[in-house]
Design a protein that fits this description.
Number of helices: 12
Radius of gyration: 27 Å
Strand content: under 5%
Helix content: 40-55%
Shape: elongated
Mean pLDDT: 80
Distance between the termini: 38 Å
Length: 287
């Protein structure tokens, strides 16, 4: 889709490629949170380098820590690594993320790299605090830096409520989106002087999901499920069917049969309910 834009190299250099890549990544991250999505796309190198810079989770240990002379900053992580990287599975990563404290995050990882960044780019860094719309072909994503001011070294107040704008998301109003982008220098978010961090934390804890891992182990969930099914079967067995219609009797009989079968062999029952997924797992196990 984008290759045709390189027909004129002089013109291609004037496009906001960074903003387009970020818009695409925002949309991909949003899609990846849905249950039906099993993959992710976008500029994952950007996401990975951001994570390496801010979070010491699975971050490679480099031979050279200094960032002097390294630009773009992502090249820092191409250096030779010392020792072997620690291998963690998904559950371990989730546990580490859930145990993070504010002091475990490097909020300002780029504060000492001014000598590395070219002057022309350094003058444009203020646009990182622009509340605007990012565009990438048919994708349009709002950028709200007022919700992450701490990354700019600014105290974080409670931000304004987000305005859901379906027209912008679907680019039904491209003119307004482009107009907002052209005015990005006029929409720089100011500092949060006098912001109460405790007040913000209380607000944030009410509107977010604080943990990415499971609060209970799969074994505990399984035991609770079996206990619930056992209780349901007991209730079904105690129901009087004398005054029931034939249809209701058939429904109760089916419920009892399903519960009995599930309690005898819950794994086999799961395969009956999710045949495609179970067959896929068996195939992976066989190979």
């Amino acid at each position: 889709m984008y290759l045709s834009l390189f027909e004129d190299f002089d013109r291609a250099g004037k496009y906001a490629w960074g903003a387009a890549a970020l818009a695409f990544l925002y949309r991909a991250l949003g899609n990846a949170t849905t249950k039906s999505q099993s993959t992710i796309s976008g500029c994952l190198t950007l996401l990975q380098c951001w994570r390496y810079s801010h979070l010491n989770i699975g971050r490679p240990k480099l031979c050279q820590v200094s960032t002097n002379g390294t630009f773009p900053l992502a090249l820092l992580w191409k250096q030779k690594q010392t020792g072997q990287r620690v291998k963690c599975n998904l559950v371990q990563y989730r546990k580490v993320l859930d145990s993070l404290q504010p002091h475990d995050v490097d909020w300002l990882p780029y504060k000492n790299v001014n000598r590395t960044i070219p002057e022309g780019i350094k003058l444009m860094l203020i646009l990182g605090r622009s509340k605007t719309t990012l565009l990438c072909f048919d994708k349009s994503e709002k950028r709200n830096p007022d919700r992450c001011l701490r990354q700019f070294g600014i105290r974080q107040p409670i931000p304004q409520a987000l305005r859901v704008d379906t027209e912008v998301d679907t680019l039904e109003s491209p003119d307004s989106s482009c107009s907002e982008w052209l005015k990005r220098q006029d929409n720089i978010v100011k500092g949060g002087e006098g912001a109460d961090c405790n007040e913000y934390y209380q607000w944030y804890s009410k509107i977010t999901r604080r943990y990415v891992g499971r609060h209970m182990s799969l074994e505990s969930v399984f035991r609770q499920t079996v206990a619930g099914m056992t209780k349901m079967l007991e209730l079904a067995n105690t129901l009087s069917r004398d005054d029931m219609t034939s249809k209701n009797k058939e429904i109760i009989a089916n419920i009892r049969s399903t519960l009995t079968k599930s309690l005898k062999n819950p794994i086999a029952c799961a395969e009956d309910i999710f045949p495609a997924r179970s067959a896929k797992k068996r195939k992976q196990k066989d190979t």
